[in-house]
Amino acid sequence: MSAARDYELPEDYEWPRPPAGGWLADDLDTLPNLPPHTELIDGSLVFMRPQTTFHMRTMRLLENSLLDQAPEHLDVFREFSVELDVRNRPEPDVLVVPTGADTGPKRTFLRPVDVVLAVEVVSDESRDRDREVKPRKYAAAGVPHFWRVEENEGLPVVYVYELDPALKAYVPTGIHHRTLKLDVPYPLEIDLTAIDRRRTSR
Fold this sequence. Notes:
Elements: E1 39-41, E2 44-46, H1 53-69, E3 74-78, E4 81-82, E5 94-98, E6 109-110, E7 117-121, H2 127-140, E8 145-152, E9 155-164, E10 169-177, E11 179-182, E12 188-191
Domain Putative restriction endonuclease: 26-187
Pfam families: Uma2 (PF05685)
Keywords: Endonuclease, Hydrolase, Nuclease
């Protein structure tokens, strides 16, 4: 049986209290003792619960597959934050970015213009954010491609969206079971049943 936590908070510890108007994106780099993978949504800090095995394995499958098949001018990031505006800095599970987006080893976030594809793997505690809040914000910021990944009988199902630039909204282009085969953002094919394999094969 595991303990509630494997560390003790100081008796005088206080959770961060938001200033008037909420936190700003830059605060994520300066606030002390934030849990890993803290996000900022509408000026509020969002703390992540421990991820499930499905979530971890799905991220690994997508990251490895996207990177294996990416053209030379694109790279793949995992769990890296994107500063959409001064009050929103979410952390997509997987990102496809231009290779030039990596401007140095100290960088802690990307801009929306740096993002080609944002992927969110839905979990119980993040369902509303991943299905409604984040896609709306990614679209408004101009991120051209978005995938939402859901679990069905232990396998990932990928809902694919493409940005309508005139409306600044996503248009669904397909629901993919077992195999994900697309021409955009680049030609790729992913065996979604390979979630439990340690290595992907093309």
